[in-house]
Amino acid sequence: xxxxxxxxxxxxxxxxxxxxxxxxxxxxxxxxxxxxxxxxxxxxxxxxxxxxxxxxxxxxxxxxxxxxxxxxxxxxxxxxxxxxxxxxxxxxxxxxxxxxxxxxxxxxxxxxxxxxxxxxxxxxxxxxxxxxxxxxxxxxxxxxxxxxxxxxxxxxxxxxxxxxxxxxxxxxxxxxxxxxxxxxxxxxxxxxxx
Length: 194
Description:
Layout: H1 15-33, H2 41-64, H3 68-89, H4 104-123, H5 130-152, H6 155-185
């Protein structure tokens, strides 16, 4: 009888990295959407590097773990952050013929499509912990509120979206810390509703 080889995955959990990249960047952008802080290079840099690059890295690490859902989520939302920043800065880059700024209706369509994608991703959280389900459901609501803001031009809806987005971002922050601290302690320190 041939010897069998058993392979054990000893790689770390990349989800806290991806969740922190998403959560912190989402909170910061939505502080702006809520009218609390100005849009600045700080938010754009977070969007490129922590919201963008860190989530793509986490998604690639999830792929190695054969987690298709997390791979799709982290790489997609990482690329969302990079495209959002590109939409904001490309018209100002003055490279040959500068790109035209995206219209409010164009941005509304962009955000609506991300909301639709997120709705289907939310369906994929069935059977997952309650905090993860909340993160995705609150993100669905956020994208649709932001799309509605841009379709209607309503600052009031934008402010509501901002406060809702702060809640969404902090829920991802909580989940990241819970996964990290629970794993480190070898027990449930921060409950996630499993």
